[in-house]
Amino acid sequence: MPLKDSLLALLVAFLWGAQVTAVKIGGAELPPILMVAMRYAIMALFLLPLLKRVKREQLASVALIATITGTLHFGLLYCGIARVDASTSAIIYQLAAPFTLVLAFALLGEVLKLRLLAGILLAFAGVLVLLATPSAGGTFIGMLLVALAALAFAAGSVLTKRLGPLDPLALSAWTAVIAAPQLLLWSFVQEGEQWTRVYTASAQAWWAVLYTALSGGLLGFGLWFWLLGRNSMQQLSPYLLLVPVFAIAVSQVMLAEGFSQRLVIGAVLTLSGVALCQLRLPAKFSLKAANKGQGVADEPR
C-alpha cells in the first residue's frame, strides 16, 4: 500500500473518530435527531448530481437501504451519543463488525470460522463490561441506543450486499436525500421545542454540525471510496480499528472525559474482538503455517 494511501487512510480514521466528539458537542445544544437531519440536508446539496447514477429498478432497494443506514442508524446513534460519553459510545459502536458477521451468516449463508466466533464473543464481552456498570458520564439507555445503531448499520451493510451491486457514491447521495426529510419528520414528532434550540445554539454547535457533514461525511467517505478503488479491503480494514482510538483520544483532549478501569477493560476486550473479526492473515503466511502443520518443508527463497 503506497505511503500516500496509508496517510490518507489515517486521515479518514481521524476524521471519523473526531466525529464522535463533534456529535457530542453539537448534541449538547441541538436536538440530536434534528442535528443529523441537518447533516444530511447539507450533504444532499453537494451530492445531488450523483442521484442519476442509480437505475430506476434499483430505487426500491436504495430507499430501503437509505432508511436503515441513514435514518434509523444515524438517528439511533446521535440519540445514544447524546446520553453517553464519547469514549464509551465509540467502543460500543464497534459492535457493528461482529453484528455484520452474524447477520451475514444468518441471511447470506456466509461461514463463521472459529477465529471469527472468538472475535464476536470477545467483542460482546467487552461491551457487556461497559453495560454492566454504567459510568456517571452515560446511561444504560444511551449505550443500548448506540448498540442498536451498530446493529442497524450491520443490517444495512448486509442488505447492500444482498440487493447490490450498487454505486457507492450514488447510494450516499440517495441516502442523504431520503434520510433528511425522514429525520425531520422524526424530530418533529419526538423532539420538543427543537427550533427554539436551533435559534439559541452557539457558533460552536453549528461548527460541529458542519464538521459532521463536510469533514466526517463528504470528505471522509469520499476519500474512503477513493482508497477502496486503489486498495483491497484487507489492506484498509486495519485502519478502521484506529477510528475508536482517535475517537477516545479526541474526546479526552476536547471533553476531558477521563479514563476508568471499566472503560480500559471494555475497550481492550472489544477492540481485540473486532481485530479478530476484521484482520486476515496474508495468504502466503497462512499457506506456510498450514504446510508446517502438515510437516511440509518451506521452499527455498
From TrEMBL:
It is a multi-pass membrane protein. GO terms for cellular component: membrane. The keyword Lipoprotein does not apply. Residues 7-131, 141-276 form the EamA domain. Keywords: Membrane, Transmembrane, Transmembrane helix. It is found in: Membrane. This is EamA domain-containing protein. The lineage of its organism: Bacteria, Pseudomonadati, Pseudomonadota, Gammaproteobacteria, Pseudomonadales.
